[in-house]
Design brief:
single chain; alpha+beta
Length: 96
Amino acid sequence: MQRSRAGSLLKPETLVKLHTPSDGGNYACGWVVVKRSWAGGNALMHNGSNLMWYAVMWLAPEKNFSVVVATNIAGPGAEQGCDEVAAAMIQHWLAK
């Protein structure tokens, strides 16, 4: 995992703890942790809705990269659309 930058709010070991599943699974403090080649190792994903909005975010800590996509509608179409946009942005910037 990339080291924290000077002036960061969290210590590097705190970031590691927050992004590491504690039970050997794939869930770490609100993040789904999965290996992705475009991320250079672990990628972290979080998504959700308040039934009126939907958002998804992907982090690639080793690449110092993140994508956040949100829409002011919810439901399966919003989820699919946001996922497709996130995938397109990841492909554009990282999967070269």
